[in-house]
Each structure stands twice: as C-alpha cells, then as structure tokens.
Design a protein that fits this description.
heterodimer; A: 269 residues; mainly alpha; 0% strand; disordered C terminus; B: 331 residues; 72% helix
Chain lengths: 269, 331
C-alpha cells in the first residue's frame, strides 16, 4: 500500500489526466463525472490531478521532515546516552523544555516569523519533532553501552565516534525505524493541518491541506472538494500507521531475539 | 512530593520561556505587523510605519528584541497587542482562556468516560467481534485529520440535515432567548466541536486502556482473586481496573498538550473565540507580543496539567510516595 502511494506520487505527471494548475473558466465547480473524476474547483482545475500532485508534496514533507527529526534525534540521543553526565542532563532538559510547548502552537509561533514555503515547513516540522527519537535513542544507548561488545571495542582503543556509529547505532536502529514509520503520517497530518489553516505550503502548489482549505468555504455546495482530499490523507496515514504497527510487532514479538539479523532481513523486504 | 515537583517545574517553566522562543525570533521579517496602516498614499504611511517600528523596537536586531522581551516577561509584563485596539496581551488572552479551558475540560471528561469502558470491554473479550470493531475504529480514528472530520460533520449535520449550528458559540438572537433556551443554544453549539476532538482522543486512550488492561489481567493477583471465588465483575472492576488505570493517568497527562494544540484547528473551523483562534489570527497579522504571550501561557498550562497528572498518579497509586527519584518518573 505504501509502495503504491509512493509510485503514484512519483508518476503523478504521467497519471494525471489534466494539468493540475491550469484553470478552465468554462468548467468551474463541476461535480464528479467521467471527465473530471473528482470534479473541479472554483477556478476549474481538475481535483483528481491536483490530488495526485498533492501526494508528492505531502509525502515529500513527510519524508524530509522525519529525516530531519531523526537525524537530530539520533545525534542528540547518542550524545546523551553515550556520554552521560552533563551532556545527558543538558540534552534531556532541552527535550523536556521542547515538550512543554503544544506542538501546533510552537509551529504557528515559529511560522509567524518565517516566509511560508515548502522548505520552511519541512524544516520546522522536523525541528519540532525530534524529542521522541532522542529519548528512544538515548534509552537504547544506555542499555547497549554496558554490553560486552561495546566494552570490548573500547578496550582495544576505538574512538567514541567509531563506537557510537559503528557498534552501538546499528543495534539501536530497530525502534528508530518504527518511530520513523510512525512519524511520517504524523508529519503528513501536521502539514495538511497547517496548509488547511493557510499557513503551510502556499498556492499554486497543490497539497491536500490547501485543497481542503479552498473547499472549506464551499462546503454547502461543492462537497467533492472536501471529501476526496481528506480520504487521501486518511488512506495514506492509515497505511503508514499499519506498516509501523507491523514493524513494531514483528521486531518485538515474533523474533526470539529482536536484534538478530534474520529479523532485520524479514522486515526489510 | 507536590512541593519537590513544583520546584522542578518552576525552574523548567522559567527556562522554557527561553530558548525555543528564541528560535522563533531569529529570522527575518517577511512583512511588518503594522502593514494594516498602509493605505492609498503610501509615502506618508511608510514614515508612520517606520516610526511605529522604531517605537516598538522592531528596528533593533533580533537578539536585542528578544532580550528586551525576556526582561519584560521576567517582570510578568506581556506588553500590548500590535493591533489597532492595543489591548494588553494578558487581557486579550484572558478573554479567551476560559473558553478554551472549558472546551478542553468537557472533551477530556467525555474521552475518559467513554475510553475506559471501551478499553476494558475490548480487553476482557480479546479477539471478540467487539474488540475487532473497536480496533478498526481506533486505527481510523488515528488516521482521520480532525479538521476533515469537522468539515464532514458540518456538511452532514449543519448543511444537509440542518440540525446543528456550525460556527461560534451562540446564535445571533441569543440575547432575546429565555434562560433555558440560551443554555440549549449554547450546548447545541458545543456538540460538533466536542465530538470531533473526542473522536480522535478516544481512539488513542481506549487503545492504551486495552493494552494496560490486557497486561494486568494476566497477573497472579487477578488469578488469585478469581480462585477465591469472587464474581467476575468484582475481579475486573476492583482488582484489575484499578491497576490498569495507573499508566493511563500518565498518558492522559502527557496527551494534554496535544489536546490544547488541537484546539487551534478546531477553534478556527468552528469560529470559537478561544486561544487557538487568537493564535491563528495573531500569526496572520504578525502580532508578535500576542504570539509570544500565547506561547508562554500555553506552556504554563501544560506544566500545570503535568503537575496535576503527577499528583493524581500519587493519589491513584498509594505506593508512589515522596520517596525521591526511585519512584516511577513521569519521563
């Protein structure tokens, strides 16, 4: 399912029957028909094509912002978990501090000072979502730091960076991957919420959120502007959540040793 | 226990008005907060805007502005709104805070009141039809964007069926109603927003409740209770439920920021004059003092909520006492 969604996003220009940004004044607000599957919006653009193109932005925002969050999370979490002491205390206080702000309020406050564009949205969503990963990575590091293979490699003189990235991190990746899979739909929901408020990705780029925003004043008349983008979000988020849930159960229940290579192999395909 | 927690939080809340907000100041201005003045003859207005910017210190570098803001906040001076009404920020927030709190309170009660029985029921009959249906419902609840659900409900109940009002908290003719009509009117305005939020929250909490209950039911003391011949309702309701509630209390406390954050979108859609709506309006008009003030107040609320959750935790579980750091930590 997730694969299908990614393929659809990549192939959007081929699959889309109409130009998503070309207005057609003769066909304003047409209800769904054989020609325009999901109808047209208030300046006659094809909603189906806009949805296809919107999926590219939604998925891109999801992947990039989760990538940013994971990167920050791994770096900080590894530093906190491996070094402990002051570094640990400082980083964990920073995490506590970020968690005090409801995410949506924080996002809005930051966006108030920035020019909204796809890149700022990605960066901002990523930079407000790294706390969970940091905690996860730190907990894994705390547990792994005392294991024999780590102590062994330290004893033959491996540097901190080498131990962190070569020895501990690969063993700590499973929960991070689960968190990433579950983070993508969360980021997509956040982006669509921001775009819906008109503070996210700006027109003329089509995203699911701003199609909904366009349709919100017309709910009395043009229900198709509201129904289909929302369904697209629902299906995407649902499939990522199920995938994440699948990863989680596979790595924690099905394998006797969740870190054995066999488990990784079976989950990766 | 309460005191030690308080002390920790005081420190944290003081620092919390610090760095993240600093991030938000460290950027260029896309457009100024006084652009609403700009009219037809822009020559005169540009000078006025310049003067206002100077007066409010907006021509200073970001760190100077931030430092000044921090000093003022230290004296609990939140400043005045940049909007034409120039009201003090605290007054503006104070007008809206009760509405948001009230809504979140109702939502919380409904979520808890429904999620706990649902969670218990699906845990005690694991893999039954009811359990499967709720599991599907939970996954859909997680994946549904709340604003989309709000729009759909508005289309269905507000437009097609015309049963419920879809915006604001009061009808236009509110003043002319009798007292009881007014109460009914108010409640009918609440139904849609509360339903939307409860739907999402319900999914999460009932899932946690189910998980927690499943773990507890396997414990020895539950077996013992059954073995000594207690009726099943007593076993579940008294022995299992009380222990299963513990982690749920923590989750509840942690989910509060999300609930408050969610009110941004819900209040904007339903035109409810609460803090979320104020936040969105201030972001659009670049009303920086209100934005920053909002952020500080919301963070304080979250801290208070966490504190209450911790205290409640101590009440539900007598084993947790002021025993220092060995007890279960919130994080």
């Amino acid at each position: 399912m997730v694969g299908v969604l990614v393929v659809v996003a990549i192939l959007a220009p081929v699959l889309a029957p109409w130009d998503p940004n070309k207005p057609d004044m003769k066909r304003i607000l047409e209800s769904p028909s054989g020609k325009h599957w999901f109808g047209t919006d208030q300046i006659g653009r094809d909603v189906f094509s806009r949805l296809l193109f919107g999926s590219r932005i939604s998925l891109a925002v999801g992947f990039v912002s989760v990538g940013i969050a994971t990167l920050i999370g791994i770096l900080l979490g590894a530093a906190a978990g491996y070094h402990g002491g002051m570094a640990d205390a400082a980083i964990m206080r920073l995490v506590d501090l970020m968690l005090v702000f409801p995410r949506f309020f924080l996002l809005l406050a930051v966006l108030a000072f920035l020019k909204p564009s796809i890149w700022t949205i990605m960066a901002v969503i990523g930079m407000t979502g790294w706390m969970g990963v940091t905690r996860l990575v730190r907990a894994e590091f705390l547990a792994l730091r005392e294991r024999e293979f780590v102590i062994w490699s330290e004893s033959i003189g491996a540097g901190a960076l080498r131990v962190i990235f070569k020895h501990i991190l690969p063993n700590a990746l499973a929960p991070v991957l689960v968190a990433m899979t579950l983070g993508i739909p969360a980021a997509i929901l956040t982006e669509s919420g921001l775009s819906f408020l008109g503070l996210g990705v700006q027109p003329p780029y089509a995203t699911w959120g701003n199609i909904l925003n366009d349709g919100k004043d017309l709910i009395t008349y043009a229900w198709w502007l509201t129904l289909y983008p929302g369904l697209a979000i629902l299906i995407t988020v649902l499939s990522y959540n199920l995938l994440g849930e699948g990863f989680a159960t596979r790595w924690t229940h099905d394998c006797a040793n969740p870190r054995s290579d066999a488990c990784f192999g079976s989950a990766a395909d | 226990m309460a005191l030690s927690r308080c002390a920790g939080w005081c420190w944290r809340s003081r620092s919390s008005s610090g760095s993240p907000s600093f991030l938000s100041w460290s950027s260029s201005w896309p457009r100024g907060p006084f652009d609403y003045i700009r009219g037809e003859e822009s020559g005169q207005d540009s000078k006025l805007i310049e003067r206002l910017n100077k007066e409010y210190g907006l021509d200073q570098p970001i760190y100077v502005q931030y430092w000044r803001w921090l000093v003022r906040i230290g004296r609990l001076d939140f400043g005045r709104s940049f909007q034409p009404d120039a009201k003090p920020v605290l007054t503006k927030i104070g007008e809206r805070l009760p509405i948001t709190l009230f809504l979140n309170f109702i939502q919380m009660i409904i979520i808890v009141a429904l999620a706990i029985p649902i969670g218990v029921a699906s845990a005690t009959r694991q893999y039954s039809l009811f359990d499967k249906v709720t599991t599907v419902f939970v996954f859909i609840g997680f994946a549904t964007p709340d604003f989309w659900l709000a729009l759909l409900l508005m289309i269905l109940f507000g437009v097609q069926l015309d049963w419920l009002p879809i915006s604001g908290l009061r009808s236009l003719n509110y003043e002319y109603m009798t007292f009881w009509r007014q109460q009914i009117d108010f409640l009918s305005h609440l139904i849609l927003p509360v339903t939307v939020v409860a739907f999402g929250g319900l999914a999460g909490l009932s899932r946690y409740m189910r998980q927690s209950m499943l773990e507890v039911v396997r414990q020895d003391y539950v077996q013992t209770a059954r073995a000594k011949g207690l009726p099943e309702p007593v076993v579940i309701g008294k022995h299992a439920l009380r222990n299963a509630l513990l982690p749920v209390v923590t989750i509840l406390g942690l989910s509060l920021p999300g609930l408050i954050g969610g009110s941004v979108i819900i209040e904007s859609i339903f035109a409810i004059p609460g803090m979320g709506q104020l936040m969105v309006q201030s972001v659009f008009s670049r009303d920086y003092p209100v934005i920053m003030g909002n952020l500080v107040i919301v963070a304080t609320l979250t801290l208070l909520a966490n504190l209450f959750a911790d205290l409640a935790y101590g009440m539900v579980d007598p084993r947790i006492r002021f025993a220092g750091r060995r007890g279960r930590r919130r994080r």
